Amino acid sequence: MGLFILRRLLQGLLVVIGVTIVVFVATRLVGDPVRVMLPLSATAEERAEFQHQLGLDRPIPVQFVEFAQNLATLNFGDSLWQRRPAMGIVLAKLPNTLTLIACGLGVAILLALPLGAIAALKPGGLADRLTVFSGLFGLSVPQFWMGLLLIMVFAVIFRVLPTSGIGPPVHYILPAITLGLPSLARLMMLVRSTVIDELNQQYVRTARAKGLHFHQVLFGHALRNALPAFITLAGWEFISGLAGYTVVVETVFAWPGLGQAAMQAIQHNDLFLLQAIVFTVAILIVAVNIALDVAHKFIDPRVELG
Amino acid sequence: MNSMKNYLTVAALMAATAVAGSLSIGLAQAADISIAIGSEPSTLDPQLRDDGGERAINDNIYETLMARTADGILVPGLAAAAPTQIDATTWEFKLRPDVKFTDGEAFNADSVVRSVERIIDPAFKSEQGSYFGTIASASKVDDLTVHVVTKGPDPILPSRMYWMKMVPTTYSADANFATNPVGTGPYMMAAWDHGQDIILRRNPDYWGEAPSIDQVTYKFIGEPGTRLSSLVAGEVDLITNLLPEFVSSVPNSAAVPGLETSVIVLSTENPSTADVRVRTAMNLAIDRNALANDLFGGYGVPAKGQLVNPKAFGFNTALDVYPYDPAKAAALIKEAGAEGATVTIVGEAGRWLKDRETIEAVGAYWTAVGLKVDFKINEFGEYLNQLFDKAHRPDAIFVQNSDELLDADRPMTSAYESGASYASNNDQEMAKQVQAARVETDTVKRVAMYADITKKAYDGSYLVPLLNLEDIYGFSKRLEWQPRVDSKLLVKEMKAAD
Hints:
The complex is a heterodimer of chains A (about 300) and B (about 500).
Chain A: H1 2-30, H2 33-37, H3 44-54, H4 60-72, H5 86-121, H6 126-140, H7 143-157, H8 170-199, H9 202-209, H10 214-252, H11 258-267, H12 271-299
Helix pairs in contact in A: 1-12, 5-6, 5-8, 5-10, 5-12, 6-8, 7-8, 8-10, 10-11, 10-12, 11-12
Chain B: H1 2-23, E1 32-37, H2 52-61, E2 66-68, E3 74-76, E4 84-87, E5 90-94, H3 109-120, E6 135-142, E7 145-150, H4 157-160, E8 187-193, E9 197-202, E10 215-220, H5 224-232, E11 238-239, E12 252-266, H6 276-284, H7 288-295, E13 300-302, H8 326-335, E14 342-348, H9 355-368, E15 372-378, H10 380-387, E16 396-402, H11 409-416, H12 428-438, H13 443-459, E17 463-475, E18 479-480, E19 495-496
Parallel strand pairs in B: 1-10, 1-11, 14-15, 14-16
Antiparallel strand pairs in B: 2-3, 4-5, 5-7, 6-7, 8-9, 9-10, 11-17, 12-16, 12-17, 13-17, 18-19
InterPro entries (chain A): BPD_transp_1_N, MetI-like, MetI-like_sf
Keywords (chain A): Cell membrane, Membrane, Transmembrane, Transmembrane helix, Transport
Family (chain A): Belongs to the binding-protein-dependent transport system permease family.
């Protein structure tokens, strides 16, 4: 097990370094950040002068050597847009995004298991139809629109929740629902179909025949067999949240997290901040993947790690 | 119907008050207001960045030697009077006595010298540097007299000093300066909760008239729909950049012609637009009143044949809006043998209000008079590449110019002076005229020079000026405020009813 984790960590390191290099090259291909930073009315000379002040007029290989040297000490340089260390900004914003994902995904996981199982008990029944319908709804509604709709209803018309911003726990409700809804839908549909499959297996009939109660079969066998797929998908939902889906929710709800920072870094052509964000997210994704593999080993002892 | 609506509003308000009490959403109190701005400032150092969020806050904390009235007229601010010229490159500023920064440091000649030297220092890497590129140095004469020396004659210097915020001599070197600003203005820093809000409170020792608002909270809401919701929900009292179509959904609103003018820059060299008859036709083909009314809901004014802002120094009052004359435009195009010729228009989408719609409408007008229009709507970065590409000028490129200094020089340098920024003409004589006007210190002569330039560009249709756009603000019923031409959100000019 220890060896496995070590090997995965080394592989992960390669991934992180690869991603960072790609971002370095890509952001420099996109164009010169100075165009966006100075007023449009600035003259060509003023732009060239400012580019020189920032050191962005040096050849890209020279910039890359400096970048690589700094990377060894986790120094990502100062954000062009914020004028303070890029990594500091990332570390300040990351907790806000992580708690938002935890709330949204946490509720989704807690609801998906019972709702999916109930729907699976009687395929085609009322509960099942409702589940499938609301699942499709959750998947098809764009998050952007969903967020604005929730704000309209709960903040503007009923005025029971704040429109946006971070603060006391009430501020988490709308963004967490908006973020968690598609995840809930996907997880719920997965539980439903896996449990339906399992309940149709021969062993279920055998188990029932030898006198096991239905709920014992359901919880002891069917749901348990659904777990590995469920955990894989939940992990994927977490990763996709980190790697981009929070951008929309954080923008709509003015949530000061990593997604919003990434959006602003792109708008400002802030190469250094963007590099720090991508590097951090890549590390988290690698870590989640390793954690998922280990979790599988615990749920299903037959799984060979290697 | 109306009483039903009132009843619902009262019910909603009561519910909101109850909820606010228990859940601390925090509705503003009597003399406290909240303002939604688009993004959180990255720093509150007033001299470092060129950023609207930072400006919205620091305009209340810091002051400048020169100020402007709500209508845009340049008046002394921290200066005791308008500056006088000692010689061609030296301006003398007399300072207002007995002004203090909120940390107790005196405002005097040393502060001015420090402010000037700090912002023009290349090592400081200020994004505002392009406003002050002409300044060479500043020196103290006595405690309340400063000489600002320019590299060459610079008639725009007084306007430039309206943009340069005055920082305290010693504290501006402090490590906390960027997060805990200290100025001479009517408001001072109270709290900055990163990611959430910034709170300013009234400066009790302010040298000027005491403002009526005690405390102001800035919230950072980038998404326009959410910003609108926060106003309607009563969480904030003022939002900026309200869309014309939402004016009817907010409790109260006001608009004022702002700093921005939309324009299309035509190439005088490219084959399809080299003929002045074609370029003139492209101006006559456009119904600017229809653009203002149908696209901007009336919140725009047809530009008077130039890119210079009507409130700016150097505005040519002799020019008028290009008339809408599609018949004459079609005839000119036929005469030039350009019927069916393809004109490429380059633009972007989403940076400025209704940019894509404006470009498409203009293209339709051009098509109607006999041209073929090829639209190139690019991502903003790629658009900027083309805007600043000296070697390949597009036939036509859309841009929205903001005239912060309210002086003709910036728009002239941007769109009229060949080779300087994004002008697409090759008129070297005009470039020399723009350069000469930049160093002409006789105001009467300078106005006359700008009149010549704008008239020549008007006759040659170097530009297709479109609309001078209005800034629309939404506010709560309790807020009283008259928006300013220079788009500044000065809280000292606001009042809030109980």
